[in-house]
Amino acid sequence: MASERLSSILSHLSPTKSGVAAITTKNPDDVVITLAIRTPLAKSGKGGFKDTPLDYLVYSLLKRVLEKSRIDPQLIEDICMGNVSSAKAAYIVRAASLGAGFPVTTGGSSVNRFCSSGLKAVQDIANQISMGSIDVGLAIGAESMTEGGDRLEKPFHDEIIQNSEANDCMQPMGQTSENVGRDFNISREAQDKYAAESYQRAERAQKAGWFDEEIVPISTILKDPKTGEEKRVSITRDEGPRYGTTFESLNKIRPAFPQFGDKSTGGNSSQVTDGAAAILLMKRSKAIELNQPILAKFVGATVAGLAPRIMGIGPTIAIPKLLSKFNLNLQTDIDIIEINEAFASMAVYCLNTLQIDHAKMNVRGGAIALGHPLGATGARQIVTGLSECRRQKKKILLTSMCIGTGQGMAGLFVNEQL
After folding, report:
1. How far is CA 351 from CA 146, 174, 340, 341, in A?
2. Which is nearest to 147 in space by CA: 373, 412, 385?
3. Integer Cα distance of 36 and 109 in angstroms
4. Contact 29/285 with Cβ under 8 angstroms?
5. Which of 6, 36, 313, 416 suits a disulfide with 383, CB 3.0-4.6 Å?
6. Mean pLDDT, to the nearest integer, of 22-26?
7. Residue 398 and residue 301: Cα distance in Å, rounded?
8. More confident residue, 153 or 316
9. What is the b/e burial string over 165-193, where b = at least 16 CB atoms within 10 angstroms of the residue's CB?
10. pLDDT > 50? residue 13
């Protein structure tokens, strides 16, 4: 601890570092991640969590957090849950935490910034820790898309939609994908080739057991749809990967949104999924005091806005904004990249526009192959990305996603388990 404090003092006295050297410096006040786990990702409506309500999914994950971290729950001061579909999310995180063994002194809240909600929850907890509001906090992202989606129930007020971009906020996500494909000439062929690669990467990763260390099994009840018979099962692996998927097989699938275009399909778009992920955060000094393993350092996150009708290209706005704050170069300084594959149209656009080395991006496949539980994805990407950093012994992780209504978000992390 004394050496960490001395290092911090010397860093203030020595010439200012920048870039990778700056973000990899270790100081007692760094916000660090000591646990990063997730549930398996299950097909909504027909998969392993189809009969599992959101509250039980959150409760089960919170219990696993306490089991895996072995931390005294009295020390966790706040839990923030990213969720999109449930208006009762704040109720759920509070009740589930109490049921899981957290004390009444542990706060609970929910946040919703659509597909970035999990990352927003991490940012919220990290900011509280950084500002000294709390010492230890837990960020989770959770979604039961079986229970509901994020569609608008009615149009906005007439005066609001007189503004064309406000009106565009009502466009279905499939329409925005077709806008990106059409506006930026992302062909059906390019989208299907990208999607096939995502499936093949996920298959390779699952067969090799790469996901095993990031997933915690969840015990739940599954009902037989024909007989109604209930049985207890343990969900242990992702259900999204479709083994043997090829460009040729994807190219035969009909367009999913023919009223808007002919490029996006059920095969090259993200899967509708149930799942959850959790990130435990505290200051480095606190982690050392509690003898908690330091997995990674949270460096920062940011959000950026853009035209709602092409919301999918949000990462191309958010990533440069975030990297500029830390004087980092995407091509030379970033080791592993997780960009949410909402649709192949936006994934191909981001890959090409940002000139990303595809070997670094979504190494284990992305949302096309694994699924996209809306509020969970931002946290799930961190879990998967850090696991991949450990496997490859790489340092710098960048995560990003597009956000409905025209936004993008990005997060930056340093893996410390080399």
Report:
1. 31, 20, 11, 11
2. 373
3. 19
4. yes
5. 36
6. 98
7. 10
8. 316
9. eeebbbbebbbbbbbbbeebebebebbbb
10. no
Q: Which two tokens stand for residue 130?
A: 């950084």
59 phi, psi to nearest 5 deg: -55, -45
The reported pLDDT for the residue numbered 7 is 56
Helix (H, G, I), strand (E, B) or coil at 401: strand
**Residue among 299, 335, 337 nearest 319 (CA):** 337
| Amino acid letter, residue 363 | V
| Whole-number pLDDT of residue 152 | 87
Q: DSSP states of 68-132 as a string?
A: HH---GGG--EEEEE-SS-TTHHHHHHHHHHHHT--TTSEEEEE-BTBTHHHHHHHHHHHHHHHT
Closest CA to 369 of 242, 265, 264, 251: 242
Angle formed at CA 16 by CA 15 and CA 20, multiple of 5 degrees: 125
- Mean pLDDT of all residues in 351-359: 98
Q: What are phi and psi of 205, to 5 degrees?
A: -65, -40
Question: Considering the chain, what percentage of its residues have pLDDT values greater than 90?
Answer: 94
pLDDT at 335 over 70: yes
Cα–Cα distance list, 81 to 14, 223, 324, 380 (Å): 39, 27, 28, 13
Structure tokens, 1 = 């601890």
Residue with tokens 């460096």: 299
Q: Please write the tens of the pLDDT for every residue from 265-293.
A: 999 999 999 999 999 999 999 999 999 99
Cβ-count burial of 157 within 10 angstroms (0-12 exposed, 13-18 middle, 19+ buried)? exposed
pLDDT band of residue 328 (cuts 50, 70, 90) is very high
- Taking only the tens place, the pLDDT of each residue in 175-224 is 999 999 999 999 999 999 999 999 999 999 999 999 999 999 999 999 99
383: helix, strand or coil: helix
What is the Cα–Cα distance from 130 to 62, expressed in whole angstroms? Answer: 23
pLDDT at 3: 58
The catalytic residues are: 115, 372, 402
- 214 closest CA partner among 85, 68, 8: 68
**Beta 230-235 vs 136-144: how paired, if at all?**
unpaired
With vertex at residue 376, the alpha carbon angle to CA 372 and CA 379, rounded to the nearest 5 degrees, is 115
pLDDT digits (tens, 9 = 90+) for 372-401: 999 999 999 999 999 999 999 999 999 999
